[in-house]
Amino acid sequence: MQTVTLSLFRFDTVLARLWVLGQMGAARFVLPQLDGLQFWKLCGSGTGEGFTPRPNWGTWAILCAWDSRDLAEAGLACKPFASWRARADEGCTLFLEPYSARGQWAGVAPFTPEGSGPENGPIAAMTRATVKPAHALRFWGRVPDISAKVGRDPNVIFKIGIGEVPLLHQVTFSVWPDVDTMAAFARRGAHAEAIQAVRDQGWFNEELYARFRVSGTQGTWQGRAPLAPIAEKEAA
């Protein structure tokens, strides 16, 4: 079964941030050599809730699709992941299994869905889009409202906005406690209105929508495990 990993790294110092900027180039030569790696992208992130056009120079991400979980874990033990973890002030990886995907990323369909969404347990939602330059201002005019609503939603477990090219190539990633909760958010308010505007006015050159089962995590983010809110709610 294909395993997708999203690895996040936080660099606090100026020297570390300059180092990772250089590594964004160097990693492009190392990643293709890893066994079982089908697809990969190096991404920056946004400030605030993450879904913003202002870059966050301290947070960087590597998104990968692997042939299997075993190959994913073996690859994550190698460079560039090992060297980034050694330099980072904090880092985590989410292990994901795609069960739904439509659209393309850079002209390819990177995820191979298998099975169905979990009856219980967390799911992850990923949306990736290439924004047409002519519509970029209108797109980013809507995003802050969506970002604020995601941040205030008590059901969202984990969230981040990443991207390859500021303003134009954007990825939103969020983890929800179950399928119904995520679907309910997607159908209402600013998020639904923005999706309708995209469809009506053709703001994107390319789109990808994917859903994943969350099969595990490593490391911490903002001082705790990415799925800690689930355990905290169950313990309450």
Topology of helices and strands:
Layout: E1 3-10, H1 14-30, E2 37-46, E3 55-66, H2 69-76, H3 81-87, E4 90-103, E5 123-131, H4 136-152, E6 158-165, E7 169-176, H5 179-186, H6 189-201, E8 204-219, H7 228-235
Antiparallel strand pairs: 1-3, 1-4, 2-3, 2-6, 4-8, 5-7, 5-8, 6-7
What does this structure look like?
With 236 residues, this protein is of the alpha+beta class. The protein has one domain: Alpha-Beta Plaits, CATH 3.30.70. The protein is 33% helix and 36% strand. The protein contains 7 helices and 8 strands. It has helices at residues 14-30, 69-76, 81-87, 136-152, 179-186, 189-201, 228-235, and strands at 3-10, 37-46, 55-66, 90-103, 123-131, 158-165, 169-176, 204-219. An 8-stranded antiparallel beta barrel has the order 1-3-2-6-7-5-8-4, surrounded by 5 helices. Strand 6 and strand 7 (169-176) form a beta hairpin. Helix 4 runs antiparallel to helix 6 (189-201). The radius of gyration is 17 Å and the shape is globular.
CATH architecture: 2-Layer Sandwich
Number of self-contained structural domains: 1
Unreliable stretches covering 5 or more consecutive residues: none
Distance between the termini: 34 Å
Helix content: 25-40%
Structural class category = alpha+beta
Quick rundown:
Helices cover 33% and strands 36% of the residues.
What labels describe this entry?
about 240 residues; alpha+beta; Alpha-Beta Plaits; 7 helices; about 35% strand
